[in-house]
Amino acid sequence: MPKLREVCRYVRSKQAGPFWITFDVYFDSRENFDRYHRSPALSVQRFATLYGADPALVKHIPVPQLSMVKISYPRPTPQGGMVERDMHAGQQYARLLDVQLD
Question: Would 86 be classed as within a structural domain?
């Protein structure tokens, strides 16, 4: 089973306003998008587990025209709070790169 980094040309995370974080997972081909965008490794439940989010609030949005998936979840605390560790959420994607796809 490949790791996410092996079938994607670009993976990023970023802020989506002060209350949300979003991930953009761009697959390197339409074939890989079709094969893996519904993988349990990219599921709502998996993101909820990895990032401590409520699964009912995680959004998983496939965008076939771009061979990508957008996944968003609410921040545990608002952006810029006293316990903020990644103000722009630009480092959150790193733990996804070694996730094995099914």
Answer: yes
In a domain, 64, yes or no: yes
- DSSP assignment letter at 99: P
Does pTM top 0.85 for this prediction? yes
Query: 8, 101 in Cβ contact below 8 A?
Result: no
Output the CA angle 29-15-6, nearest 5 degrees: 25
Confidence at residue 83, expressed as pLDDT on a 0 to 100 scale: 74
Q: How many domains does the chain have?
A: 1
Q: Which residues contact 73 (CB under 8 A, 6 or more apart)?
A: 20, 21, 47, 48, 51, 53, 54, 57, 58, 59
